[in-house]
Amino acid sequence: MTRASARNVPEVTPLWLKLSSYLILKDEEKDYLSDLEKNIVRQTARTDLLQQGEKYRDVRVMREGWAIRHKALPDGRRQVVNFVLPGDIIGMYSTLFESADHSVTTLTAVEVACFPPERIVELFQSFPRLAAALAWSGAREEAIVAERLLSLGRRTALERTAHLIVELLRRLSTVNLVENGHFTLPVTQEILADALGLSIVHINRTLRRLRDSGLIELNGQRITVNDVRQLASVGQFDELYLHLIRAPKRLERAFSGDRRARSGDDKVEGRKM
Amino acid sequence: MTRASARNVPEVTPLWLKLSSYLILKDEEKDYLSDLEKNIVRQTARTDLLQQGEKYRDVRVMREGWAIRHKALPDGRRQVVNFVLPGDIIGMYSTLFESADHSVTTLTAVEVACFPPERIVELFQSFPRLAAALAWSGAREEAIVAERLLSLGRRTALERTAHLIVELLRRLSTVNLVENGHFTLPVTQEILADALGLSIVHINRTLRRLRDSGLIELNGQRITVNDVRQLASVGQFDELYLHLIRAPKRLERAFSGDRRARSGDDKVEGRKM
DNA sequence: TATGCCCTTTAACCTATGTTGTAGCCCCAC
DNA sequence: GTGGGGCTACAACATAGGTTAAAGGGCATA
């Protein structure tokens, strides 16, 4: 609760880091972000941060720990939509949407910052660069969900599983949570099954195949990827969708007014299939 | 090309309508939107508006017609991520992302407006309310993709198909493209299959079951839904995720400075599972 | 009127994945 | 330590959905 520091030395948080890959943050922007995160709350594992169907509450920023975003059918079948990692925002659109169409549940103990949804509006009004960076990071999240859709629709169980492992590896390594090819996966096989649209038994079979082929090792929650390249090739993994190549400078330039002609006569393209 | 009208009488476009459900647009915002859409281009059916892997080009606004957003694996397997309908934006994040992780292909002849990506940055700087409305409509699109993920992961072929038909019915009726329960579906069974993660043969079987049970009728591209309630119940359709209940007034209020206390002492919640 | 292409339809067969059931392990509570 | 709950593991069997193949309809072009 007292961890947020005074304005003169803003703390570097995961959100801060994430937005930095889109923008070179100005001092007042850093101050604003650190102010947003000043109300810090801890929650234990297996707690709902948001429940499908309820009215939206505060906006939350994940600072530490893992959670899942998931949706359920009335009869209990469940789909994990995405993993929520440090720096991710929960319920950013609370101001506008009536009620939540998904739940968010912690997998580990977590530390989140809470603030009222009105502050997002404030942010759009007063910090357009931050607003753009947030909107962009939201778009990146959508890209991840779309890629998972491709997995569920068109990849086999083995491919899907390999793909997810590589995805998590890549996402976690951008926040320095991977060391020597191994990382902590605080996830039961049931959750993996729900993320990949498989049964728990089949996820078990599939992990076994991956272990037998020597591509990965599993010890409790520790997963070791022995051969990323080959695992990526099994999963037909193409990291384009993670949009890891970011261009803070390009956005900087755009924001500093170096704008091209606003003429309406852009070239016309579009080619036949 | 000459259809965009002069500033004094801005044309009501689908984008305009869509944003109006989030905001009560001011005159200068209407003018700006109409200026954005002044460069209008037509394309025939089966043309790519964007190709996976290529550098992003212009931002486009769909004004008329249908398209699909889809992703493909190297071996040709393909997944349709979403249907692009009038008012939707294509490539909104061109400024930041290096290259496209999906393709967009027209299904019918379309009319789109094109503008350079820099204008999105301009919009964030000068029209924060429009920026917020756009960001929110992007979030709604993500919600649709997440719901489709639930379908592919956890619904049976019959449920998925019923669900998609009801979804399209609801989305199209908000833009007055449904009449008496029937609408035009400019889509081959192959595309349906790619949207639902099924084989073309199985989509055919499934449509047959829906027709045999009397829930729908198909004549060419005309689909008639005879019993929406029952179809919705087959598909376990809950329209929460479409976020059709919008609250322009709530957003208006937030933007006009009627903001609550910014104190940091929001209630702490979170309940055990 | 004929030709061909694209799309739909159906049948027969196949396989990836789901289901059910049982067992063992580990860890925590008592 | 003992019991129980949650998780992993794996075998045996069931089935939804995939694959292959072939025929037929509609529509444009010649």
TrEMBL record, chains A, B:
GO molecular function: DNA binding; DNA-binding transcription factor activity
Stated name of the protein: Crp/Fnr family transcriptional regulator
Species this chain originates from: Azospirillum doebereinerae
UniProt cross-references to PANTHER family, sorted A to Z: CRP FAMILY TRANSCRIPTIONAL REGULATORY PROTEIN, DNA-BINDING TRANSCRIPTIONAL DUAL REGULATOR CRP
All residue ranges annotated as the HTH crp-type domain in the record: 155-229
InterPro entries to which the protein is assigned, alphabetical: cNMP-bd_dom (IPR000595), cNMP-bd_dom_sf (IPR018490), Env_Response_Regulators (IPR050397), HTH_CRP (IPR012318), RmlC-like_jellyroll (IPR014710), WH-like_DNA-bd_sf (IPR036388), WH_DNA-bd_sf (IPR036390)
Keyword Transcription regulation among UniProt keywords: yes
A single Gene Ontology CC term: cytosol
Matching PROSITE patterns: HTH_CRP_2 (PS51063)
Annotated Gene3D superfamilies: Jelly Rolls, Winged helix-like DNA-binding domain superfamily/Winged helix DNA-binding domain
Swiss-Prot/TrEMBL keywords: DNA-binding, Transcription, Transcription regulation
Keyword Transcription regulation: yes
